[in-house]
Recover the amino acids of this structure.
């Protein structure tokens, strides 16, 4: 099960946990209410045959997928890439990740502009809404393999903060103010 917590303000070594003192964990339900980030637990050993991932893909219209590996061995200019992933940004589409191996952190901003760190590992699938400020980093294991899903052909452009005038950001802020509700 995924863990999430409010982060401290220490900017050294992005790959560490960065808990507040005392730690301030939040539940998956609270994470959704505060940010709109959705979470699914999927069995990495049976996802190809159990139909759970297929159902999510069908319901959400995910028609394109690929796989990404982030590690020192697989990413050219590893340190530079890791820094670029950690730059606060948003996307015009959802960011969907299903972790197959390894682990890492997605950081998202709540409505009070506080960072929430989401630790993901094998079997965790998160959906980060369009328009939310976020960033990604590996943890100290420096390895993750994940599937990425898209509606249609991927348009994968990060828009670094500030991007408050973008329509996707305005829509996200509106949803944040009204409150996120789960689909029936």
């Amino acid at each position: 099960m995924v863990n999430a917590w409010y982060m401290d303000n220490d900017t050294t070594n992005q790959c560490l946990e960065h808990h507040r003192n005392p730690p301030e964990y939040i539940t998956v339900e609270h994470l959704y209410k505060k940010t709109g980030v959705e979470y699914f637990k999927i069995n990495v050993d049976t996802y190809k045959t159990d139909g759970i991932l297929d159902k999510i893909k069908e319901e959400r219209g995910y028609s394109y997928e690929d796989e990404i590996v982030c590690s020192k061995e697989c990413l050219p200019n590893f340190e530079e890439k890791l820094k670029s992933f950690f730059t606060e940004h948003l996307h015009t589409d959802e960011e969907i990740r299903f972790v197959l191996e390894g682990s890492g952190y997605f950081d998202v901003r709540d409505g009070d502009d506080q960072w929430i760190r989401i630790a993901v590992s094998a079997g965790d699938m998160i959906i980060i809404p369009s328009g939310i400020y976020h960033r990604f980093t590996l943890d100290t294991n420096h390895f993750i393999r994940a599937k990425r899903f898209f509606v249609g052909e991927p348009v994968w452009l990060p828009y670094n903060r500030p991007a408050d005038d973008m329509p996707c950001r305005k829509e996200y802020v509106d949803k944040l103010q009204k409150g996120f509700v789960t689909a029936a």
User: Anything to note?
Assistant: The chain has one domain: 3-177. The domain at 3-177 is CATH 2.60.120.10 (Jelly Rolls). Residues 102 and 144 are 4 Å apart (CA to CA).
